Amino acid sequence: METIEQGAATETLKVGADVVTITGDRVTIDAKHAMPDWQVREFSPMPIYFRDKKYMLRRKIAGEKPFAIRYFLEPWREGTPQGNCTFSYDEETVTQREAALRSGHVDDVGRAALVFLYPFLGLLWSRSKEKLRRFGFDPRTLTAVSIFVVFGLVLLELVFAKMLIFKSLKSGDVVIGGMLRAFTGVDALDFGFVVIQMLWFDIALFLLLLGDVLIRYSHHLHGEEPFWGFLEWLTVRRRKSPINIVQMPAPAVIHQEKTPEEPTGPIRMSR
């Protein structure tokens, strides 16, 4: 806190971006930005601690530029029932408020820039989508939209394949493929040591898109985390189910009573 002016009954000091004027036992705060949780309450006001003294918010009005709002604090009256929250006003509080506002502005700018890419954000992998929460994007919703986008690409691949087939029937030149063949305009890629037909790239793309739709949609219906991005399921190792070992109880020991042994020797008859 930096003291600006100090008189017999008035003291003016700077607290971060705010200016505080102390007149007797009353405090006036010209705040650069509003304190979002400070509310004027007739019943059960919330205590505000400043310089180890307890105050209550009595009034607030619009401030004069460059300040946004002016708060009027008065000493806490003993016996006043207080609310369930307490506030502390000091330079650290003002610094945290300004930092939160700057962070909020950055998030707003980031959200405005990313909203144009919204249909494709769900193609990002799960860890990247978790970082987008700060901009207000829900990973599960992004994933659902991206599944629809991939399904649209599957249909588009089929549409281009049909168009090329019809074009081949009309012209007599055999042209088979899909989006990649239509966009590139080449029949094959020559890598020097091997030549691969563009048709195989279109088939591979179609199978990957179709597999991604089926697997991610099934995973999405169960609502399970993480929310996979495009082809992220290829990196997921299948978990082996644990083998349940059933421990058999020890066999019960049956104790039999011993019967008197029968004589084994010759039996003598007596008259």
Explain what this protein looks like in three dimensions:
With 271 residues, the protein is α+β, with helices and mostly antiparallel strands. The chain has two domains: 2-98, no CATH class; 139-235. Helix content is 36%, strand content 19%. It contains six helices and ten strands, in the order E-E-E-E-E-E-E-E-H-H-H-H-H-E-E-H. The strands form two sheets. An eight-stranded mixed beta sheet has the order 1-2-3-4-7-6-5-8. Strands 9-10 form a two-stranded antiparallel sheet. Strand 6 and strand 7 form a beta hairpin. Helix 4 packs antiparallel against helix 6. The radius of gyration is 39 Å and the shape is elongated. The termini are far apart. 17% of the residues are buried.
